[in-house]
């Protein structure tokens, strides 16, 4: 069984702000993208890592990836799902891990849990429970939501290649924020394995400050 990790890094990082998209900026002396690549490339069960970047991001990406073997850089599209699709054309492994470049820290045991779960599922994702009270409403509370059955879904997400391609084809034209949504919509089985707060996505400037603090604390 061959395993390839596909890291999507073609976004513009608009919510984070700054001159350079967040995935190409240095966090603790190393780019966010390089952190993500190193975490996956260093895992013994992952055979190769490929990276999808945005049109016009070649120079920033090459600088951010100095010294890393990720083959030729793949060019993504306008939405995350377009970037994933563009990247999948270049991947022929039996199993594919799709990962956000904006999640720089990936504990190796999460990858083991994902790959183990593929023995009896078409896909597997890392999840975390929700600690806060959950409600719907704008400005005022409309309805309280039972959080006990809700899960926060992270990446990397693992799939058997054939099942992923089937789900994408079946759900063509529908909008999803990740590929596990496409599998579930296509009626396939996606395992929920224990995720990690280390995998939380860097979305805003506050997330960036928290990541810097985490990194500094881990170096002490
Ligand atoms: N991504 C991508 N192609 C896109 C949009 C997003 O490859 N067209 C990637 C991002 O680079 C990121 C991941 O998908 O690694 C998760 O997306 P998000 O956190 O939303 O990043 P951005 O889209 O860059 O940020 P924003 O939505 O704030 O502009
Ligand atoms: Mg985005």
From TrEMBL:
Keyword set includes Nucleotidyltransferase: yes
Keyword annotations: Isoprene biosynthesis, Lyase, Metal-binding, Multifunctional enzyme, Nucleotidyltransferase, Transferase
Cofactor dependency: a divalent metal cation
Pathway named in the protein's UniProt entry: Isoprenoid biosynthesis; isopentenyl diphosphate biosynthesis via DXP pathway; isopentenyl diphosphate from 1-deoxy-D-xylulose 5-phosphate: step 4/6; Isoprenoid biosynthesis; isopentenyl diphosphate biosynthesis via DXP pathway; isopentenyl diphosphate from 1-deoxy-D-xylulose 5-phosphate: step 2/6
Annotated EC: 2.7.7.60, 4.6.1.12
Residues the record marks as site: Positions MEP for the nucleophilic attack: 147, 201
UniProt keyword annotation of Lyase present: yes
Any GO molecular function: 2-C-methyl-D-erythritol 4-phosphate cytidylyltransferase activity
Known catalytic reactions: 4-CDP-2-C-methyl-D-erythritol 2-phosphate = 2-C-methyl-D-erythritol 2,4-cyclic diphosphate + CMP; 2-C-methyl-D-erythritol 4-phosphate + CTP + H(+) = 4-CDP-2-C-methyl-D-erythritol + diphosphate
One GO-annotated biological process of the protein: terpenoid biosynthetic process
2-C-methyl-D-erythritol 4-phosphate cytidylyltransferase: annotated span: 1-220
Residues of the site described as Transition state stabilizer: 15, 22
Protein family (similarity comment): Belongs to the IspF family.
Job description of the protein: Bifunctional enzyme that catalyzes the formation of 4-diphosphocytidyl-2-C-methyl-D-erythritol from CTP and 2-C-methyl-D-erythritol 4-phosphate (MEP) (IspD), and catalyzes the conversion of 4-diphosphocytidyl-2-C-methyl-D-erythritol 2-phosphate (CDP-ME2P) to 2-C-methyl-D-erythritol 2,4-cyclodiphosphate (ME-CPP) with a corresponding release of cytidine 5-monophosphate (CMP) (IspF).
Name of protein: Bifunctional enzyme IspD/IspF
Organism: Sphingomonas rhizophila
């Amino acid at each position: 069984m061959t395993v390839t990790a596909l890291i999507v890094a073609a976004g513009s990082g608009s919510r984070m702000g700054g001159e350079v998209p967040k995935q190409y900026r240095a966090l603790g002396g190393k780019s966010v993208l390089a952190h993500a690549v190193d975490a996956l490339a260093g895992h013994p069960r992952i055979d190769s890592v490929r990276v999808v970047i945005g049109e016009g991001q070649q120079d920033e990406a090459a600088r951010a990836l100095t010294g890393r073997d990720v083959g030729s850089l793949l060019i993504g599209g306008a939405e995350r799902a377009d970037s994933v699709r563009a990247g999948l054309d270049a991947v022929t492994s039996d199993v594919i891990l799709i990962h956000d470049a904006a999640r720089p820290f990936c504990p190796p045991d999460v990858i083991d849990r994902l790959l183990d779960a593929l023995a009896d599922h078409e896909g597997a994702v890392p999840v975390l429970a929700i600690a806060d009270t959950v409600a719907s409403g704008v400005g005022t509370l409309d309805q309280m939501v039972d959080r006990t059955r809700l899960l926060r879904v992270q990446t990397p997400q693992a799939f058997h290649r054939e099942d992923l391609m089937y789900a994408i084809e079946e759900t063509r034209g529908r909008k999803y924020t990740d590929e596990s949504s496409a599998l579930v919509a296509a009626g396939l089985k996606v395992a929920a394995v224990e995720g990690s707060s280390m995998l939380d996505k860097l979305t805003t400037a506050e997330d960036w400050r928290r990541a810097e603090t985490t990194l500094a604390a881990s170096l002490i």
